[in-house]
Write a structure and sequence with these properties.
Elements (H helix, E strand, L loop, with lengths): L1 E6 L3 H12 L1 H8 L3 E7 L13 E2 L2 H5 L4 E6 L7 H10 L3 E4 L2 H17 L4 E2 L11 H7 L5 E7 L2 H13 L3 H10 L8 H4 L2 H14 L2 E2 L6 E2 L7 H8 L3 E12 L2 E12 L11 E8 L3 E8 L3 H17 L10 E4 L9 E2 L1 E6 L4 H7 L4 E3 L11 E5 L3 E2 H7 L5 E7 L2
Helix pairs in contact: 1-12, 2-12, 4-5, 5-10, 7-8
């Protein structure tokens, strides 16, 4: 029998408990041994809940029990999660986690500790919830050099942008709707400012390019400045706006960023609607491959966590190779990378002025019924470096500036 301890009995923790118990025979068969939840750690009590029989309030009970083989960390936050995980690994217990913040900050360190103690640190659910991306990146796409990873990595922001695009609503109104539906937190900052997606792309970039990418170094821009008028313009081009986390390799440099992008219908990410997530990967041999599904949610995320538990059991006493080194990766400056931009500036009829400072501009008219019709000039640039665009637009009052995905 393999004993599992779950740290945290919130949304994901209760989902892990439910999945292991509900699908126990199937999971045990896949793992090659009986899987049993011996402990669940939480500071709270849950009267009448089935978890009562295995509930503990002291982590040391789990740490000091030699019968616990696998620890599932679903507490969230950096501390005490990081300390608990490190101590578990040092005791030779494999750890499975969904904690993107902790993985982004300490992933390389914890993988090293796991290797030193012949156990495994697994984190499939930390990126994309129930979407399998970590294991394919680590075990299936091993012959490819990754040219680019581009993903819709946050369901809250994708829901908001989808509603704005399809129903012509304002950001503030859709945010309130998302909060009422439970898709957004009361304090939505981590989602709408792009911090959640930033941590996820940091993890993927660290794995793809084999050195530690610190999320603090990644340029991050949220969706709070996106307006319904932006959608009115781009919809005329058959395009939409998505918050993307991107990491890519160009001329020997690695770049990473999170920002809104205008994307066209021929982009596979265009059709990803609502709370769904998708990750598009381009390999030098494989070409494009996309992973799509529920990026969050109790059972979807728990499914990915428990899959890691099965993997940990199957590899007991063996190290699952992961090429994520602790050496820090220095990222290229995104302002030195040229890409097209969608720009709106105050004042109608400024085409001639704009053409004097920018080449090969495509102008766009606002719909006749738009409140900004006749009050501004909108256009899409050719690929231009961010610093050069800023210099060119010094004589204009910029209303909106959004990158365009190529």
């Amino acid at each position: 029998m393999v004993n599992v301890a779950i740290l945290g009995y919130g949304t994901v923790g209760s989902g892990v408990f439910e999945v292991i118990n509900k699908n126990n025979s199937h999971i045990s068969r896949r793992a090659g041994d009986d899987v049993n939840v011996k402990y669940v750690l939480d500071l709270r009590d849950f009267p009448g809940d089935p978890v009562e029989s295995v509930l503990v309030h002291d982590f040391n009970v789990i740490l000091n029990d030699p019968e616990v083989d696998v620890v599932v960390e679903v507490m969230g936050g950096v501390e005490p999660a990081h300390t608990f995980v490190r101590q578990s690994l040092e005791q030779g217990k494999s750890v499975c986690t969904s904690n993107k913040e902790m993985v982004a900050k300490y992933g390389a360190e914890l993988l090293k500790v796991a290797k030193e103690h012949t156990c495994n640190f697994l984190y499939e659910a930390s990126v994309g919830g129930g979407i399998p991306i970590i294991r394919p990146l680590n075990q299936s796409l091993t012959v490819d050099h990754v040219n680019e990873i581009s993903g819709i990595l946050n369901g809250t922001t994708n829901y908001i942008l989808t509603k704005m695009s399809e129903e012509g609503l304002k950001f503030e109104d859709v945010l309130k709707d998302a909060q009422d539906r439970g898709y957004a937190e009361r304090n939505p900052e981590a989602d709408v400012e792009g911090y959640d997606a930033c941590r996820k792309i940091a993890i993927l970039a660290s794995m793809a390019y084999e050195k530690q990418v610190d999320y603090e170094d990644i340029y991050t821009e949220g969706i709070t400045k996106i307006t319904k008028e932006d959608f009115e313009y781009v919809s005329q081009l058959g395009a939409s706006i998505k918050l993307l986390g991107k990491a890519w390799k160009e001329n020997g440099n690695i770049y990473a960023m999170v920002a809104p992008f205008v994307i066209n219908k021929d982009n596979p990410l265009y059709g990803v609607r609502g709370v769904f997530n998708a990750i598009l990967l381009n390999g030098d041999m494989l070409g494009d491959v996309m992973f799509y599904g529920k990026g969050a949610g109790k059972l979807a995320t728990a499914s990915a966590v428990v899959s890691d538990v099965v993997d940990a059991i199957k590899h007991k006493g063996k190290i699952i190779m992961t090429f994520w080194g602790s050496e820090k990766r220095t990222l290229g400056d995104i302002n030195d990378f040229a890409m097209p931009y969608f720009v709106r500036v105050e004042g109608a009829g400024r085409e001639a002025e704009i053409e004097k400072v920018l080449d090969n501009v495509q102008f766009i008219s606002a719909p006749a019924d738009s409140k900004v019709a006749g009050t501004e000039t909108a256009f899409i640039t050719e690929a231009v470096k961010g610093a050069d665009l800023e210099e060119a637009l010094k004589g204009f009052t910029v209303v909106s500036k959004i990158r365009v995905s190529q």
